[in-house]
Amino acid sequence: MASPLTPSHVVIAYDATKDRGVHELTLAIDSLQKRGDVLHSGDTIIVLGVLHRVVHPMGYHTKPCVDFLENSIRAVEEEVTKKVDMYVNMLLQSAGKCEDQGVSIEVKVTAGFPVKQVILQEIMACKAAWVVLDRAYHRHLRRDLTFYLKQIPCKVAIIQDSLAVEVVRPHTTDETDTIEHKLFFSLSKPVPLSNQGNENSEPLITCGSCPVSIDSPESSEILKNHFVTSPTFKLRDYGTLLNLGSSSKQENSGVQTKADNKPSTVPQKIQKQNNAFRERCSDAPILCSRCGTRTEMYVKDSMTFSYSEIQLATNDFSKENLLGEGGYGHVYKGELKDGQQIAAKVRKEASTQGFKEFHSEVYVLSFARHKNIVMLLGYCCKENLNILVYEYICHNSLEWHLFDEKAAALEWHQRHSIAIGTAKGLRFLHEECRGGPIIHRDTRPSNILLTHDYVPMLGDFGLAKWKTTGDDTDPTRIIGTLGYLAPEYAENGIVSVRTDVYAFGMVLLQLITGRKIIDSNGEGQVQSLREWAEPIIQRLALHELIDLRLGDSYETYGVYLMAKAAYLCIQRSPEMRPSMGEVVRVLEGESDNFHHLGVRFVPEQHTK
Ligand SMILES: Nc1ncnc2c1ncn2[C@@H]1O[C@H](COP(=O)(O)OP(=O)(O)OP(=O)(O)O)[C@@H](O)[C@H]1O
Predict the structure, then answer these.
(1) Residue 327, ligand 1, Cβ within 6 A
(2) Annotated active-site residue in 442, 460, 500, 547
(3) Residue positions in the annotated binding site for ATP?
(4) Which of 84, 261, 400, 578 is the most exposed place for a label (fewest CB within 10 A)?
């Protein structure tokens, strides 16, 4: 292990899956510099972004396991490259400051899972002298720390929530266990100094132990061969393997790899998928554990259904199969020949949703694959009839659970997980969906469907539309539902992702209070939920807010977080509202302040 005075590597391990503000990284590096006991002249800071979720070419998120990497190298490569460039740009200023201290910065993004294993391998690979762990993505840092302290031989520090760096173990250790080595996909790039430009910094791809140039024609071939390797060896061997320059050298190292005796199957697999028509994916995620249903992931070669197929599935659109009627038309439950349960939405003749909206919905939904989004399986067009075929979501809508007499009161933990799941669905549409952002435009409880596991699924994209550059201002087409419409949308027709944030804030208030959006105040007058709830939140009188049906069975901190998120979301000014990514972080208790937001959750009594 390098002594403190020889140039060494200091790894800052970050979660690259989440959006991070520039200030978070730069402040962490500042505080590292200020300490004086971690960085020395000649050292290199490696900002390691761990990408533990990547976007599947179909648009939903998945773990970058070896199997996935093997089949989707290009997609991962693209995502990793984007992240590396983003980090490099964020760190340009820090690189200048570090240069004065004789320290350089390098960015490395690694797609792999599990996170702890990625961090461990990367630390061993560069023989780091220090690892600085970002507390923000370790929800169970205390437990994870035991793992790191046991497995990592180098010195350990943590970035606190305040972004200060706290040293946890100021010395190295020799006691490390043998670990199973996994293969991940990495790309690294030095952060240039302002006078250097960016051109000379050729990025390096590494797949496991083998660096190759990103532009190298052999890169795909090498990646293909290396993603399938999975040797087991002692940590101490790793360093010697890592410096090898080509795949053949690795083979010479004598490590037995699966690639040595397994012919590449990638091209055949891709071809098979292209030819497949609605082929089911075997690793489809569970949709509902009670019903035993799985989310079907049809390969999107064709999404068209024949009319007779839907007619048969819905028992000829029988009354018994009718689920309900909405603005679009009648919705029928059905079962396809292969057992897949569906909800078929048949457009009303006089539906307010015309052909244009129909195509908008099909187009938008074909990109939206996420565990909190109702999946569109396909559609059918017959003469002037439009039918959308969705996966069937088995446990009614949130509207039903909150307000139907037959529904049992939702428990607190269910409300909390519904809030987080819905927020993640919206975050996906706004920030993560391929080709997005997509604005939902009609977020409300009746468009949030639930499984028996109380997993919320956002549906009804009839009003969604692609966001082009800037805000969409067409005051003539106000669509959505009163009470959930953000003021700038209701008054001036201005639509942006922040109008969804507002509507989501209203849903949060309903989850906390169990109240309708407009209710009677008990004196025969109507009162809007927002007007009633906002001053109560400002007084932090959360007990006045909470749904009486919950009794004492709620978690005060959870209510606080949800009320805080709601309060931020329903700000009149769209700029004051958080992004959905930030909302998720508030709900999960991960972040307590957003420096860029003018309004903080500062209750009145604290400001007096
Ligand atoms: N994918 C689905 N799985 C199960 N039930 C569904 C599905 N989609 C819709 N439904 C149910 O069908 C009924 C009608 O739904 P629809 O979305 O058309 O109307 P709505 O949300 O009630 O009103 P609007 O069209 O004005 O948004 C509702 O009871 C809804 O819960």
Answers:
(1) yes
(2) 442
(3) 345
(4) 261
**Model pLDDT, residue 278:** 36
| Ligand 1 atom having least distance to the Cα of 392 | 3
Residue 160 is encoded by which pair of tokens? 């606190």
For residue 323 and ligand 1, the question of a CB distance below 6 A is answered with: yes
| Domains identified in the chain and CATH numbers | 9-190 (3.40.50.620), 307-391 (3.30.200.20), 398-601 (1.10.510.10)
Q: What is the mean pLDDT of residues 185-214?
A: 57
* Ligand 1 contact, 480 CB (< 6 A): no
Which ligand 1 atom minimizes the distance to the CA of 396? 31
442 tagged catalytic: yes
- 331-365 b/e with 16+ CB inside 10 Å = b? bbbbebeeebbbbbbbbeeebebeeebbebbbebb
| C-alpha 397 – ligand 1 centre gap (Å) | 8
CA angle 468, 470, 471 (to 5 degrees): 90
Q: Where are the alpha helices (DSSP H) in 306-411?
A: 307-313, 355-367, 398-403
389 lines ligand 1 (CB under 6 A): no
DSSP string, 246-276: SHHHHHHTT---HHHHS---HHHHHHHHHH-
- The response to whether residue 374 sits with its C-beta less than 6 Å from ligand 1 reads yes
* Nearest atom of ligand 1 to the alpha carbon of 390: 1
Centre of ligand 1 to C-alpha 449, Å, is 8
Q: Render pLDDT for 227-271 as a digit per residue (tens, 0 to 9).
A: 322 222 222 222 222 222 222 223 222 222 233 333 332 223 222
In this structure, what DSSP letter does residue 608 have? Answer: -
460 lines ligand 1 (CB under 6 A): yes
- pTM tops 0.80, yes or no: no
Cβ within 8 Å of residue 444, ≥6 positions away:
399, 481, 484, 503, 506, 507, 517
Report CA(324)–ligand 1 centroid distance (Å).
Answer: 6
Query: 151 and 179 in contact (C-beta within 8 Å)?
Result: yes
Taking the CA of residue 328 as reference, the ligand 1 atom at the shortest distance is 25
- pLDDT of 334 above 90: yes
Please say whether the beta carbons of 146 and 168 come within 8 A.
no
Ligand 1 mutation pick, 333, 340, 389, 397, max ligand atoms within 8 A of CB: 397
Residue with tokens 């109008």: 499
Q: Which residue has the higher pLDDT, 513 or 13?
A: 513
Question: In 3D, which of 191, 199, 225, 190 has the Cα closest to residue 210?
Answer: 225
Is 398 a pocket residue for ligand 1 (Cβ < 6 Å)? no
What CA–CA distances, in Å, run from 474 to 371, 490, 492, 574? 32, 11, 8, 17
Expressed in percent and rounded to 5, the helix, strand and coil fractions of the chain are: 40, 20, 40
Question: What is the C-alpha to C-alpha distance for residues 176 and 28, in angstroms, rounded to an integer?
Answer: 28
pLDDT mean across residues, the chain:
74
What is the Cα–Cα distance from 511 to 516, expressed in whole angstroms?
10
Tens of pLDDT, residue by residue over 42-57, are: 889 999 988 888 876 6
Q: Give 58-99 pLDDT, tens digit per residue.
A: 666 777 877 666 666 667 777 888 888 888 888 888 888 888
